[in-house]
Amino acid sequence: MKQVTSILIGAGLRGGYVYSQYALDHPNEFKIVAVAEPDPERREAFSKKHNIPQEMQFKSYKELLKREKIADCAMICTQDRMHYEPVVTALEKGYHVLCEKPMSPDKEEIIKMGEMAKRYDRILSVCHVLRYSPFFSKIKLLLEEKKIGQLITIQHIEEVGYWHHVHSFVRGNWRNEKESSPMILQKCCHDMDILLWLAESSCKKISSFGKLTYFSEENAPKGAPRYCMDGCSHRDECPFYAPRFYLEHSKAVEDGLVYAVTDNADSKHILDALKKGQYGRCVFYSDNTVVDHQTVEIEFENQVTASFLMTAFTNQCARRIRLMGTKGEIKGDMEAGIIEVTEFVSGTNEVIKLHTPTKGHSGSDMNMMKDFVRMVGEGKKGKTNADISVESHLMALAAEESRVNEAVVNFKQYTRPNAE
């Protein structure tokens, strides 16, 4: 396979540190030749790491995409509401596209991106990385082998983790729905995609319930300041005290979360950034609007039903699933890498232990990049495509409409309201 070349639009945590790592690990397969990033420090640091010359460094995607096509593909890793224009422009220019999820919080933009990929016959791959995990790949294989007969019911839970929720959805870039997207889309379009994939059927009806219950001003302890470092008297008993997390919590360093606070991750720079920065806010005095718990009930066209739960109030950041069929059941813990298969007739109970990397969505990130590079370089079909990503995104938006309007949503009517 020839070396695949790419441009990167958005050199933040996902684009600049995660997906682009594939180019450093596999230089003969993949090379990033240009970057567009408004933050000068990030742009310079990324360019140095990937040996990108000055003339291929841009402040904005518009400057980069004004040029004639200079690579095989484009990685679009901007914020949620900034995907549509660079994706469409890149497709028009002739690039295959890898787009960070979610595609967009706007239904019409999502549909149009899918249509544009078809019109120009381009790969549009959305970063639904869980399909590439050893865990869900194995579950998919077990279903295809009919280990539990006909699939009837799925129960799935995403434990966001109290620390992850506070970092990303109370203090972080995805805290405010109007600035980013609803929680069920931003965080859980992964899960809608997995449920769609495992059920092997289109959605028929969907309903949802959920609220922002805890992380709001009325729950602030008496006398709590607006910022953690302004002498908070509750810091010893508060699990969300910012300095403790960013200086002591292993996940802040291991998962690179501290780099959202400051590019210079020493204690002085961290503490300075927390004094009046968004990541130093009291969790009860932020401008967050997304829910902190939500449930979704789904009926698929093939009569499979699924129940999904997302909650911020867990210690671990984990996904657990249970699949019930006519001849048995499957239980699984993604982060532990354990799948348990029970057959009704024989009564056998098989425990499958997988090798599960601790980083990158349990190894999914690099597997996804490998698949995308192979699709571009060899023209082969991958594990997902734009049509599937469009449908799972619309499932998430339909769930949010149900939650807000307190009504069951007919999925066909939601996606094609003018169809007969």
Automatic annotation (TrEMBL):
Family per record: Belongs to the Gfo/Idh/MocA family.
Domain Gfo/Idh/MocA-like oxidoreductase N-terminal as annotated: residue spans: 8-127
Protein name (database record): Gfo/Idh/MocA family oxidoreductase
Coiled coil: none
Molecular functions per Gene Ontology: nucleotide binding
Pfam families found in the cross-reference section: GFO_IDH_MocA (PF01408), GFO_IDH_MocA_C (PF02894)
Residues covered by the Gfo/Idh/MocA-like oxidoreductase C-terminal domain: 142-402
PANTHER family, sorted: BILIVERDIN REDUCTASE A (PTHR43377), BINDING ROSSMANN FOLD OXIDOREDUCTASE, PUTATIVE (AFU_ORTHOLOGUE AFUA_4G00560)-RELATED (PTHR43377:SF2)
